[in-house]
Amino acid sequence: MAERRLSSLPSQASASLRSDARRNRALVLQAARSAFEEAGLGVPLGEIARRAGVGTGTVYRHFPSKEALFRAAVSDRIVLFTDTARELAHVGDPGTVFYRYLSAVIRLTVRNKALCDALEGRFEASPGVEEAFREALAVLLRRAQQADAVRKDVTIDDLMALLMGCLSMEQRRGPGVAQGRMTALACDSLRPGRRVTKLPANPPAERNETQCGVCGGAVAPARTGRPARYCGAACRQKAHRERARARA
Predict the structure, then answer these.
(1) What's this model's pTM, rounded to 2 decimal places?
(2) Residue partners of 196: CB distance under 8 A and separation at least 6
(3) Which domain holds residue 230?
(4) Distance CA 25, CA 61 (A)
């Protein structure tokens, strides 16, 4: 009987060590989320260890570098965003779901420097995490477009760039701009109305081409000599008359 009790001691001690290790890892992760949220990747590991109530060596035993700890802390949050998007993919009213979800992601991320660093590409989260988020968001986008709640020409690349832009705008909004207003304005640009956004055509990069000094139209490049100042004889004569009146 005593032999059985003695033989069980090593396994009990091992289980206790594993339990302590799991507890310490959870404490470190919780402290890291809070610290990274406030200060981003610039927070020292010693500060994270202090918040977790453990030594720096304990942090290193679970995470070989601050970057590894950052990935673990941030990835959990992005995975939560992804899981939520996947659940919402089966909810009715896709348009309302899409806009509320997008606004919530921006609202929660803008207060979290670590998430901003990850989603804006300043530091990469764990492999596959950002891609899974992107795919889940693309599903919500397609459903909203099928419900005629989002313009058909918007792509997931457009949406990711818009999300990054909203984060930047919300961070830099002035005191007279209400929180969330920049996001609301950006979301309005996604709603149907104009079917396609066309960028203005860039003028050909000709060496001598200028704008007409009278009407503002394009002036054909001069083959030799100085660049032409006017698009034609009518604008040239009008400019001459204006100069004559000014001299008089």
Answers:
(1) 0.63
(2) 151, 153
(3) 210-247
(4) 9
